[in-house]
Amino acid sequence: MPHFEDDQQGDSKVLTKTKTRTKLARPRLYKVLLHNDDFTPREFVVVVLQHVFHMTESDASRLMLYVHKNGVGVVGLYPFSVAETKVAEVGSLAQQAEVPLLCTIEPDTGDGKDGDGGDDGDDGGDVN
Predict the structure, then answer these.
(1) Are 90 and 83 contacting, i.e. CB atoms less than 8 angstroms apart?
(2) In total, how many domains does the chain have?
(3) Beta carbons of 25 and 79 less than 8 angstroms apart
(4) 47: CATH
(5) Out of 20-29, 32-41, 104-113, 115-124, least confident range
(6) Rounded-to-integer distance, Cα 62 and Cα 116, Å
(7) 14 CB contacts (<8 Å, ≥6 apart)?
(8) Which of 38, 47, 77, 121 could pair covalently with 29 via S-S, beta carbons 3.0-4.6 A apart?
(9) Which residues contact 18 (CB under 8 A, 6 or more apart)?
(10) Burial 14-44 (b: 16+ CB within 10 A, else e)
C-alpha cells in the first residue's frame, strides 16, 4: 500500500517503494559421455542405457552403435549432481559386471557439437 506524505504546502505526494527481483540463472548443464572400449558387450551397454538413462531399447541400441562407430557419444545433459550420480551408477554396474565401460562428465558448451547417437547404419559388434 502506498504511503502518503504531506509536503510543506499541504499537498500530498505518493512515495513509491522500488522492489528488486532476483532472477535465478539456470544451472549449468554437463554432458554425460559414454566411451567406446574393446571388451564391453553391446547387450550390456544397451541394458545400462535403459536402466540408468531410461532409454527405450531402440534408442539405447542406436546410441550404443553411434559410440561404437565414433568412439564417444553424449548420453544426455544434466545438472552436475545428476550427471555425477549417473556416471557413478554406470561405473558401479560396469565394475559389478567386470567390464571396462567408461562414462564421464564434461561441461556443456552449448555449441551443438554433440554426439547425438543418430542412426549411422553401423551393424554393431562389441562396444570398442
Answers:
(1) no
(2) 1
(3) no
(4) 3.30.1390.10
(5) 115-124
(6) 9
(7) 2, 3, 4
(8) 77
(9) none
(10) eeeeeeeeeeeeeeebbbbbbebbeebebeb
Q: Is residue 125 part of a domain?
A: no
Mark 81-119 as b/e (b = at least 16 C-beta within 10 Å). eebeebbeebeebbeeeebebbbeeeeeeeeeeebebee
Do 23 and 101 meet the contact criterion of CB atoms below 8 Å apart?
Answer: no
91: helix, coil or strand? helix
Digit-coded pLDDT (tens) for 72-118: 999 999 999 999 999 999 999 999 999 999 999 999 998 766 555 44
Domain that holds residue 81: 39-108
User: What pLDDT shows up at residue 8?
Assistant: 61
Which grid cell sits at 102? 567408461
